Request: fold
Amino acid sequence: MIEQLVLPDVQQSEDIRGIELWKVGVKNFEIPMQLTQKNGEKQSVHAIATMSVGLSKNRKGVHMSRFVLQLSEWSRSRTFELDLRPFLQEARDRLDAQSAHVELDFRYFIEKKAPVTGLSAPMAFGCKFDASLLRNGNEEDYRFILSVAVPIGNLCPCSKEISDYGAHNQRAFIRAQALLDTSSNAPIVWIEDLIAALEEAASCPVYPFLKRPDEKHVTETQYENPKFVEDVIRDATLVMRDFAGIKGFSLEVEAFESIHDHNAWAAHRENFHETS
Amino acid sequence: MIEQLVLPDVQQSEDIRGIELWKVGVKNFEIPMQLTQKNGEKQSVHAIATMSVGLSKNRKGVHMSRFVLQLSEWSRSRTFELDLRPFLQEARDRLDAQSAHVELDFRYFIEKKAPVTGLSAPMAFGCKFDASLLRNGNEEDYRFILSVAVPIGNLCPCSKEISDYGAHNQRAFIRAQALLDTSSNAPIVWIEDLIAALEEAASCPVYPFLKRPDEKHVTETQYENPKFVEDVIRDATLVMRDFAGIKGFSLEVEAFESIHDHNAWAAHRENFHETS
Amino acid sequence: MIEQLVLPDVQQSEDIRGIELWKVGVKNFEIPMQLTQKNGEKQSVHAIATMSVGLSKNRKGVHMSRFVLQLSEWSRSRTFELDLRPFLQEARDRLDAQSAHVELDFRYFIEKKAPVTGLSAPMAFGCKFDASLLRNGNEEDYRFILSVAVPIGNLCPCSKEISDYGAHNQRAFIRAQALLDTSSNAPIVWIEDLIAALEEAASCPVYPFLKRPDEKHVTETQYENPKFVEDVIRDATLVMRDFAGIKGFSLEVEAFESIHDHNAWAAHRENFHETS
Amino acid sequence: MIEQLVLPDVQQSEDIRGIELWKVGVKNFEIPMQLTQKNGEKQSVHAIATMSVGLSKNRKGVHMSRFVLQLSEWSRSRTFELDLRPFLQEARDRLDAQSAHVELDFRYFIEKKAPVTGLSAPMAFGCKFDASLLRNGNEEDYRFILSVAVPIGNLCPCSKEISDYGAHNQRAFIRAQALLDTSSNAPIVWIEDLIAALEEAASCPVYPFLKRPDEKHVTETQYENPKFVEDVIRDATLVMRDFAGIKGFSLEVEAFESIHDHNAWAAHRENFHETS
Reply:
């Protein structure tokens, strides 16, 4: 690159502190990102990226612009699949690094049908890809965590039991982090399928578009199906354990109680550790 | 001040664009702030301040450090009352300005009793002081807007009516901006009283601490008292119209629907205009 | 609609409080939204919508699902232009209302070239459409406010003047609300043009992708062009006054000072009032 | 408690899913919290609490009100020290649980002197206590993580090197999580000392109150002391390694670049794992 002929390259200079750094890169860089939906169509999402590499102990810094260049090029010409190995290998090569990491946060639209009238509207779900590729001697350690945030309704079993009529219910969220099986023949974990499966753990799912027959159905379904956050997270745990392609998981359920200004909350994890 | 002997004062230099500016100052400056509660005791709150003055058209800039100095001095030694005229007059004098403005955002604790057991716990409410002092020839235009955000529960009348059992309910917020009567003999508008009055517009208030008899009461009260956001804001409007010491108001009601991931919302204002 | 044959319509019932409400609707509803770029191409953005109508004093409530239905239909089949009159007229008809309002918040991508190397990458800008249509007797009052948030760099003139070398600089934001001329023959105000014009008020614009020759240019340009927030907002005021198609405006400049944890801030408005 | 005589206790009922839950409790509960400053004085902070216990596999739920009761009682009558073992033991007893966890987020004020004039003002720092107590057979596993977020200024070495004059600088944050030595004779890690030590890793600290001689000093100090985020995090790593009372740590440095709208970022951890 031309500027390296004329301008000093401070990042390339040597560092004497002898500290190899875990992650160095860019945060909060926004790009349009093409995704493949379960139905085969493409969806363009607005992604907020954090991208980094490990920095060897004798190098002063990384060339940050290379992250932006790669993210921009992929944004223009590539589709971001659940397998981000090629993306991370390219990052390691561009940055001359042993490890690379990327986090992509985005809102993903799914067309959702009302339970009775069947009328549909788009609904946005918070999702995240979190992938790492590390060289361990001759080994390659590749990890991929798919996160989804699923809004639901939950109705309090205690309130229903102790009250002569009614029961407090509220909007709640199931937040799941799925550690995916990245072996070559592992089944694909579609965002659409993971969200649909987790909605089964609710008192009732929520919907973007409801006419009165739908609202009647949702209200009565919630009442027939009371669940504490403890019940929701246990049922979500059974979902995650059985989900083909998921090796481990972390779950959080948070209910925005309609009788308090604070939230009921539960967290659980199995075979899960934070991103390496 | 010593540095003016040795260092040039760029802010004092003349500006030729001929534009008098509405507000120039500091934003997001945090201070501990002493408030007087209705019961006479002091409460120390964590305030986030935005403070500014008008800038005359021939002056290049203001001395920002003077805002920080005044806020710090008041934080140490003064109580912030609902009457911020002395604070704003001091700001105008320090900055040699015609107008001064201050916004103080804070969370305010009120000890709240459960409706049946009477057991109590502190509950935090979002509050804001927004005050302005302008010179209009020989006139002084002083305005004070008190804002409170009141979490409540609301239960949907439609859902109750069309369903064989149950009714969806959820946490909602009433956000009120009260334009206060600042005449010398106007009654004091206590935060405690304004919040309590607005809670009357709910299907049922929310509480920090509820035992089962309290939860039964809250659940049944919500069910007996169904309200759309339209009902809540109309009842809140009646509250604000009748509240001694309030000349005008802006209201917002937002319900975090337990059957949707979007919110039901209403806004209404009477005799209200934005801060001058 | 079928459910009206079988289920009671509570919203349609009469209200006796006699309060006509300013705005009733939905908040925080997310949709994909097609926009036309200045270059004629379409951009799909992720919009967060607040949509409402006025409610007459004798009606208990509105049918919220109709907002969702209209937003979904437009999301699928229509392009959202700067003229939202047809959208608001349709809302008034669907909801049988005298007034309609819509706010659409979104991040908008603009391909931005580095100043020396000319290499480009997408950069996201916060934008908002805020439109209202009111019936005043035989008159129609239509208003449209276009908002943009423009990140920039600013370098402190005082710091440069008093220091033997260097000068503190920081990321800052120009936030502009433009009240558009909505007469039939008014020029179109392109987001791309408004942002580019406002960047001229900075010490130097910011860029997504910079190689070293670009970084040298940006650094030196900032140093040659020191500006207080007062200078930035005055220059932005001159931009807004002269911008064809803009009748009034509100401006805010906020600098995330690199010598403080609080921000320098200025606000100014001309021929501007909040949304009706 | 009286209501247990008259109302069924659903939480106490048996669960058949056989899933022991990691954490069940309340989130986002706000309380005033008394802390002891290094100088021995008390500071009342506004804490946002997440408090939970482990739930045995045969129990349906926990009694959420007991968390609120304990937090309220401690808020009234106790000081929250760096040793939260008594707090967590009480939680386990109240909830009849094997493990207890608490997170307390708060802003902490430190009086900060300007570097030349010595004039001082309060400055708020984001802090967090995160403590866990688990029973492992006869063992007790107690962990405490102290987190602080330290705003600083950093100046880009590359920009300084390649530019004829000036250098871009910006506000940045050092976020540190310190895993404390909780042995009986371990030294106390004062928030004041940890923040002061981490500020040494900056190009220059930031201050709430600066007069012109101070601003000159800060500007020139930044220029004399250029640092990439890589340099800041390496110097912060040396600080954390040598800090008496800290056994392990996680660090993040994020710089709000004044030449970009995205951030430069680095993360590093040693002898650190997430809360058990």
Summary: The radius of gyration of chain C is 22 Å. Residues 229-242 of chain C form the longest helix (14 residues). Helices of chain C lie at 3-6, 65-77, 85-95, 157-162, 191-199, 212-224, 229-242.
